[in-house]
Each structure stands twice: as C-alpha cells, then as structure tokens.
Design goal:
With 155 residues, the chain is an all-alpha fold. It has 4 helices and 2 strands, in the order E-E-H-H-H-H.
Amino acid sequence: MATVLGDAGGPEGVPLVANDGMDDGYRPSPDEPFMNERQQAYFRRKLLAWKEAIHREAQGTLSTLQSEPLREADLTDRASSETDWSIELRTRDRQRKLVSKIDAALRRLDDGEYGYCEVTGEPISLGRLEAPPIATMTVEAQERHERNEKISRDE
C-alpha cells in the first residue's frame, strides 16, 4: 500500500511515499515528548521512502537515457533534446546531493541528534522537520546563517 507522507512532497518535486504498509495515520505532535521512539520511527520511514523515490526516478532516467537515441536528424530537434537532457541531468545531480543530505539525517537519527539544531542545540519544530525532513537548523538559526552569508558576499 503506497501512502503519501508529505502534503507537498519533497524538495525537487520528489513525492514522499512509503510502501512499508506501516502508516497508521500517525503524525508527530507537539503534545508528546520530542523525538520519542515513535517520532524517530516516523521520520526514519519518511527519509527512507524519500530516498527510495529518488533512486527510482534516477533509475528511470538511466533506463530512458540508455534506450532513447541521443542524436536527432534535425538540428532544432537535437538542440531541444540536448536541452531537455541537460535539465534532467542537472535535476539528477541535485537529487544526488539530496540523497547525501538524507543519509546525513539518517546518521543523526542513529546518533540521537536528529531534530536538534546543529547551531543552538534547540529542538527544531516538527512543522519544519516535516518539510524538509533534512532540516539541520531552527528557523531562527537558519535566518541568522543566511544573513551572515549575505553580509559576507556583499563585502
């Protein structure tokens, strides 16, 4: 049974889908202890399902790339085809980087650090962890970080 785990799906348009049949309608709530075992299991399933969806899409791209001709007879068709593949390959590269962020989030889950800001150590809101579940900073810490980056670039 496939179940959508995120209302908006994941970044890069990859839907967050679980096929483990373990969806009992549970959604983490601020009324329960933060990062209890049930919340950890929920986010682990969400991250693993997201990673699996990315791998399926990448495999589909690879299959299509291997089966379709790369050379079109017409120059306009060839340019269009090459542009489409360029966009597709850039998307796959972004998703490859996303998989490494998912793996890092899974390691943080294993280490008991998931859900806590890497800057302040404070809990990251459940809403922020829902989308995207790879968040490593609270909203406030992220905003400070982005302001500091902007100041550095402007100098």
